[in-house]
Amino acid sequence: MSHKFSLTLLVPICAALLLACAAKPEMRSSCASESDAAWKELSLAKAKGFGGTVSYAKALSLLTAARTMQVAENFDACYNNAKDARDYIANSYKGQ
């Protein structure tokens, strides 16, 4: 393999990795704040008697997945799961 060919492949890969790393701190804090808010809302929903609804169960499942994604440092998925969980929690108040 020629040096020009390997350099042609290496530069875009390095650029992509740098962009991914640059976005991590922002998504890390978004993931943390969204999942913390969702856990608080889930606790309130349970305290208000909505703990047995289907929406509550879905939210709990999504928040468990969000924590797993947070530990794996997949902050985009963490944020999205926590955001979806908050939607399900809101629906549990509506009886859905």
Automatic annotation (TrEMBL):
Residues 1-22 form the signal peptide. It comes from the Bacteria. Keywords: Lipoprotein, Signal. This is Lipoprotein. It comes from Cellvibrio zantedeschiae.
